[in-house]
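Example 371.
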Amino acid sequence: MIKSYIWSSFTRVFHIILVISVGLVFILAEFDKLLSWHAAIGFTIGLLFVYRILWGFMDVKYSKFKDFNFNLHDLQEYIFNVFTDKKKYVGHNPASSWAIVAMIALGLGSVFTGIVVYGTQEGMGILSFLNISLFKDMDFFEDVHELFANSFMAVIFIHIAGVLLDRVLHSSKAIESMIGGYKESDATSLKLTFFQRVFGVVWIGTSIFFFLYLLANPSNLLIADANTPVDYKKEHTLFFNECKSCHTLYPPYLLPKQSWVKMMDNLENHFGDDASLEASDKEFIKYYLVQNAAENSTKESAFKILKSIKDEEIIAITKTPYWKRRHSEIDKSIFTSKEIAAASNCKACHQNIEQGLLNDKDIKIPEIAKG
Ligand code: HEC
Ligand code: HEC
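Predicted structure in complex with heme C:
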């Protein structure tokens, strides 16, 4: 049989890059410390898809949306006849036509909602200005982002299952054609115009460049961390001097108002120590702590700590369910090691906590403490 050229090299390279990036973005979602990588790959997937949409409106045989088969009747027939002798399609069959459009829509949806979560919850990236109290309890955005991402993954699995089934049942050569570009058929071969070739080079070239640029410039607008360090000494000298003398200076946003009030009204008996102050100084610090307590903060950890406390009268950060959950995987012996001494010694692992920063990327368990 004769062979026809069906998939251009740009389509195929795009496909391979997409497979790798989507795989990576899902794996990286599990590692908080690599959040900026997750974001950089997410942006790249978004860009790749935008180009793919434009490509679909160009007159590229088999790849243009006009050559897709969206006929529902054909789709039904295709699915019902999967196990028997089904009609052969040179370009996209009805199932893959729908799958591709669904993947583009869900993929772009995941990217947009990801940008929103990154901005509202983490105070990072291009939407970091949305890290305001209005959106701080927006677990909702995260749920929507996960819904998009998981649906995207589900369609990918269906797509892969379909391709494998087609191979087993009909010894289809779809996989080979996505690598080599050719299919056994006497259909018209694809031929790209000069402009389409230039577009293809720009598509792949700028996407790779964009990704490398994001990685090499962590402070660029799209993924930058907009959480700025707080100079507590300047903001409240008395708080800084008094509350840093015995331990880490805990940022006020790590406890709710009522915890600070309860703690400050009982400084004589402060975790077994006497930390008492003159009444006016005490009130002065208490006021500052309450003003900046978890309820009034847009930090992700503030919101999560607050949400985890169920009207218990907790006054230690390390006693909050959220803190316990986030540190449950750390071996007890690390906390009691000579270098750290106590769980309350946050700054041993969170280097910038005394500047009010608790970002995932700054977490570091000292090597020596690991024994
Ligand atoms: C005289 C020493 C001393 C001073 C001054 C002091 N503390 Fe403490 N603080 C302690 C001790 C001791 C603990 C218990 C640490 C532990 O459990 O490992 C503690 C624990 C805490 C905790 C709980 C940490 C945890 O385990 O989550 C908070 C919050 C806290 N202090 C806030 C303050 C604030 C706010 C001030 C300033 C008004 C202050 N402390 C001043 C000695 C002090
Ligand atoms: C022995 C090192 C260590 C100490 C001490 C420690 N942490 Fe952590 N902390 C970690 C690690 C590791 C993680 C990340 C766990 C994970 O990946 O889920 C973490 C996570 C967190 C998070 C979640 C970060 C986020 O983005 O929401 C918060 C908040 C936090 N720690 C606060 C504290 C506070 C407050 C203290 C002191 C009272 C403290 N930690 C003491 C190691 C430590």
